[in-house]
Every structure is written in C-alpha cells, then in structure tokens.
Amino acid sequence: MPTARKKTYDAWALPLLALLFVAAIMASNSLLRSIRWDLTENRLYTMSQGTRNILGGLQEPINLYFFFSSDATREIPAVRNYANRVRELLEEFAANSKGKINLRVIDPVPFSEEEEMATEFGLTPVPIGTSGENIYFGLAGTNMVDDASTIAFFHPDKENFLEYDLAKLVYSLDHPERPVIGVLSSLPMQRDFDPATQQIRQAWVIADQAEQLFQLRTLSAKLTQVDEDIDLLLLVHPKNLPEQTLYAIDQFVMRGGRALIFVDPFAESEVPAVDQENLMASRAGSQSSNLGPLFSAWGIRYNPGQVIADEQLALSVTMGPGRPSIRHLAFLGFGPEQFNRSDIITAKLDLVNVATAGIFELEGHSTLTMIPLIQTSSRAMPVTTDRFTYMPDPSALRNGFEPTGQIYTVAARLTGPLASAFPDGPPSTDTGTVGHLKASITDATIILVADTDLLTDRFWVQVQSFLDQRLATAFANNGDLLVNALDNLSGSSDLISIRGRAGYTRPFTRVEDLRREAEARLQAKEQELEQQLKATEDSLARLQSQRLDQNTVLLSDEQSVELHKFLDEKVRIQKELRQVRLELDREIDHLGSRLKFINIGLIPLALTLALVLWIALAGKRRRKPKTQ
Question: For residue 586, what are the CA distances in angstroms to 474, 507, 513, 580, 581?
Fold first, then answer.
C-alpha cells in the first residue's frame, strides 16, 4: 500500500470506528431492546415463569400508572435507587405482556394535575427526608371496566416480594371477580342463629374481615361434592366427617383445588366457658379435630392427642381478680424469629397467638414437600392432651417439662403430587361424583395450621361496641395470617409459584466484617480500661483504709503515685482506642480506593488493552503476505 494512501487510511480509521461505534449503540438500543442478559448474582431482572405466564395470558388491556416524586427525591439516593428498580421491573412487565400493559411514569409535582390524579387513585404522600417534604411512590392500575387496584407505597423492606406484589395487582385487574371460598367449620365462625340463646350470633371478627375480600360459601358437613366454582376450601376444626365428605374433599384436591386446613388437638373455644356444666361434660370427651384418613394417605403425620408446649414463647394468662399472672406453656405467642420470612403468607407478620396447638411432620413415604411457615423455639416439648382436661392451674404444666431441643412445625405449606385416599373409588354410589381420580392431576397446594383458637377474637383482637357498631382493635396478626393465606391460595397456580427473592441492595460485607473486628478490639480495650480503673480505685480505697490519720481529703504519697500511674495508663489506653478507630477508617478508605480503581480504572483499561490487542493482531494478519 502506498505511503500516502496508508496515511489517509490511518487518519480516517479512528473517526470511522467512532462513527460505527455510535451507530452500533443506536442500532442496539432500537433493534436489540427486547434482548435481556441478566448478569446479577441473584437474577434480579429475570422474572419467574409464573409471572411470565400471568403476563402472557392477559385477556384485556391494563393501564399501570407509576407515581414517583422524582424532583422531590433528588437528595435521597436510596429512594431513587429503589424507584429505578421498581420502574425497570414494571418496564419488564410491559415488555412481556404482548402489548396488553400500558405503563405511564408520572412525577406528581405539588399542585399539579398529576398530583390530583394520584389523590383520586387513593395514593397518599409520605413525608421523607430531613426537610419533611411529601413524596409519592406508589402504583395504580385500571382495567377495561374501570376497576382500580393500588399499591399505596413501595416500602423498601418489602423488596423481596416486589415481583409478587406487582404480579398480584396485574392478576387481580385481569380477574376482578372475588374468589369463592367454601367454608366447612364445626365452630361458630360466621353470623348465625344460636338456638341456645334464641338470638343472632355475631360472626368472629376474622370471618367478617374475610367476608369483605372473598365470597364465603358455607358448606354442609354432609356434602357429597364440592361445587366447580369454588376456588378454595377452608376447613376449620373438621370433626367426625362422614366418608362421603372426606371423599369430596379428597377429589377436590385431586382436581387441583387448594385447601387451607385448621385442625386442633384441643380446641379451647369449642365450648362457651359460661356454661360450666357443659364445659366439664365436653372436656370429658374429645375437643380435637383431624382428617385422619386423608392425612394418612397423603403422608402427613399429625397426632390429635398431642399439644406443643414452649417455655420460651409462653404467654402470661390471668387466673382471676387479685391473683398473679402465670405463664401458660401451651398458650404461645409466635414472634418474628418463628415465621418463615421467605413466604408471602408469613413474611411481614410480627405476632400470632395460639392456644394448645399441635404439630405437623411428614411420613417417610410422603410425596409432598413441607415448607414450614410457623415453628416453635428449641425450648419446646410435646405433651398429651389429657393434661388439659381438668387443669385448674396452668403452672402444673411445668411438672416434668423438659425441652427436647427440637424445633416443631405448627403451620406449613405442602406442595407436590398426591395419591387419593380412596384408591378403589367413592365409598358409596350416593356421592354423585363423576370421573374418579386416583391421583392429583397437578401438584397439590395445601396449607395446614395446627390450631383453631387463633381464629377466635380473644387471642388477637379487642372488640368494643359504639353506636351499635363493632370496633375491632388488633393486638396480634392472627387475622393477617388467615387473609394472607386465603389471598395467596385463591390466586392462580402461577401466582402461588412466585416466591420471595433476594434483595436489590448488596451490603458491603467486607466493610461490615472490618467494623465488627474493630468493635471487638474497641470493646476489649474498653473492658481493659474499666478493669484497671476498678483496680486503681480498689487500691486507693485500700491505702485510704490503712491510713492512721483521719484526713480523708488529702492524698498520701502512695495514693498520689498510684493515681498518677492510673492517669498515665488511662491516657495510653485512650490513645490506643483512637489508633484502633484510625486504623479502621484507614482500612475502609483503602478498600474503597481499591474498589474504585478496579471498577473505574482497571476493568476499562483491561477491556481497552484487549480491544487494542485484537485490532493490532487483526491488522498484522491483514498485512501478512499470502503464501503462494
């Protein structure tokens, strides 16, 4: 190649490469927009298959309005970073909806039409930051019939369930009808006529709450078939059910129906405490409930004659006027450490109170997978139910109580294939069932809770009457447990399959380790100083007591020497404490500098060198003469 042409080529090569680079970026933004490559450790930007199925199956267009006060949060990077995470996930929803989701991102500045729009949807501003300025950070959605659903505020502490919350909102707009819950209960949960008092019996507060969100349909204990339009079975304290009813429940589950089952080894609420004669008669019999044939066939181990006691979670109960409270080992208050934080049902619960609850385990032959939702502490022990029949003093439970060190499951989610408890078909020809199933057509989803007393008002809510209205004030999350379970199970199988995932924020674990190590050293130094201070004070007191004169104000020569020695040592130790803090800050700064150099300098430099090397090798190959 002539020298002049080579110089011209070299002069134009770099601008042409730059132009081609810009053109490639613009083309990729438009042509490759739908291509995603998730390189994050926890696959943050990869939606679950359940979410994809919900988005791909949308029947009608849905409008989503993401309200975020962008201008008002310029000085709050944590909120802005999480808002970017929410917006990007919403954009992924829209991109995978086949055009059915219309997303609008709105900044509702004060006194604007956008702020009025947010208010009409029911979103309320939240004061945040040092200035106390109100911001909007929520989502509203509408469908074709003007049904609306909202997420009032995206709390960062619910980040693990962000995908579930968004998918639930979209699913509820696509299926606006209220789910139908079939309720089979031997306890008086719902509003009914009480033949004993000849009056209308008020529903439990927990049933009133469920009635507002779902269609509750009371089922007979002698049912032969579960209606096709029932989305979920709610079984509360099922006792002595006939075979035809057990068969109907079994076939409902085999068809893919979900079930929320509350059983109890000893139901405190079964008999009204005001009727002492009936109370004693009942406790002479059985207050337990069970689905024995179904549990046995499904591989669920549950002993209706066994109650779990836990000295760490025991609640205090009042024995009467003027008597001190006693910790009841079988009345338990489950706190945050006992809940499964990875399951949407129990993720945000703080307290659930139960009484004389049972235990669930899986048999060795079970085909189910058990995911514990609520568990005891390690200070627990099973006791027999006969100890509660005539127990005037709960302190008697401590007799012979020895914690096993084992953690027991009181509530659980069960999933997996199931075999019917009636492999030979219906128990009689009167069931009316068509098409007997020997096995489940899809993986079953069942939630079990080994207590029914938690549903009663006295364990979680205070009720007062005001102007013929009942005012309920909750002091525990028992109601939330039921509503969360009904809400989760009544959705589609795709929605149920969405689990909590890892958070967006990544803690600096190395920095935290450095801080913990430094704090341990600081604490050791401080303890050393306190010990030397105490030793010096003891020495001064000893010298003072040995003095023959009565002058307690002036120090002796020995005391002065001892005091100066302590003061010198105190200065030395404080200097060492400052040095430890200084070394900690210096080490963190060095770590930050190394990370900045790697991310900002080293990686781009390595990529640039690799590109230059590739260009040089390519040019060398082009200039190499071809052999004949």
Answer: 50, 19, 15, 10, 9
Nearest to 443 by CA among 257, 299, 250: 257
Q: Which CA distances in Å does 92 have to 43, 162, 164, 500?
A: 13, 13, 14, 18
Q: What is the mean pLDDT of residues 556-580?
A: 68
Q: Is 93 exposed, middle or buried (0-12, 13-18, 19+ CB in 10 A)?
A: buried
Q: What is the dihedral of CA 134, 75, 587, 571, to 10 degrees?
A: -70
Q: Is the pLDDT of residue 133 over 90?
A: no
Cβ distance 337 to 349 under 8 Å? no
What pTM was computed for the model? 0.69
If one counts every other C-beta atom within 10 angstroms of the C-beta of residue 253, the result is 22
CA separation, residue 468 to residues 101, 197, 200, 347 (Å): 45, 20, 14, 36
433: phi then psi, degrees, rounded to nearest 5: -80, 135
The 10 Å Cβ neighbour count of residue 188 is 17
- Other beta carbons within 10 angstroms of residue 27's beta carbon come to 10
Which residues, including other chains, have CB under 8 Å from residue 535's CB and lie 6 or more apart? none
Q: Answer yes or no: are the C-beta atoms of 448 and 261 closer than 8 Å.
A: yes
CA dist., res. 99 & res. 95, Å (int): 7
Kindly report, residue by residue over 236-281, the tens digit of the pLDDT: 999 989 999 999 999 999 999 999 999 999 998 885 444 444 444 4
Tokens of 215: 């269609």
Q: Which fold has domain 49-173?
A: Glutaredoxin (3.40.30)
Per the CB < 8 A criterion, the answer to whether 332 and 357 are in contact is: yes
Length of the chain: 628
353: CB partners within 8 A, 6+ apart: 315, 331, 332, 333, 334, 454, 459, 460, 476, 478
Give the CA distances from residue 211 to residues 189, 421, 541, in Å, rounded to whole numbers and listed in that order: 11, 32, 74
Phi/psi for 94 (5° steps) reads -65, -40
